[in-house]
Amino acid sequence: MDLTETFGSTKSYCKLKIQSSPKLTRPALLTEGPFPILCERTASYSGEGYGVDFGDLYATADRSRIELLTLELDLAFNFARLAQQQREPHHRERSLQCALIALGAIRRFEGQISDPAAWKLIHERADELERLLERVNT
């Protein structure tokens, strides 16, 4: 049995079809209309009845990973440049250590980027950072 509920206002509305079933299992977030609604659905996550586009989720995760690694590279370059300018050995070592930690995180996650152009850019900047750290460390 299909039930249709309409939530309305003067400017917007949302229609939601809920299937009644004895086996209501996992909650699903439906975004039909201007605002999301949480309801129970009958199928499994990968089955019929779910409107989740895992391709979009994967692409969003990849863009977030690229942005994070780009920011991490910027931070590591700042630490490396700071190490170049430090006169006190303790501060210089600490800045180098922070840059190396950031570089390690970049190297760890760069292989998870699926966009070849973004991977190449991040990989080349990480190589440039390594060269800079070698010059600063000598």
| Mean pLDDT over all positions | 75
Compute the gyration radius: what is it? 25 Å
Strand adjacency order, main sheet:
1-2
The description of the largest β-sheet is: 2 strands, antiparallel
Outline, from the CA principal axes? elongated
Helix amount, in percent? 40-55%
Intertermini distance: 75 Å
The succession of helices and strands, N to C, reads EEEEHHH
Count of individual helical segments: 3
Beta-strand share of residues: 15-25%
Number of strands: 4
What oligomeric state do the depicted chains represent? single chain
Structural class: alpha+beta
**What is the domain total for the residues?**
2
Low-pLDDT runs? 1-44
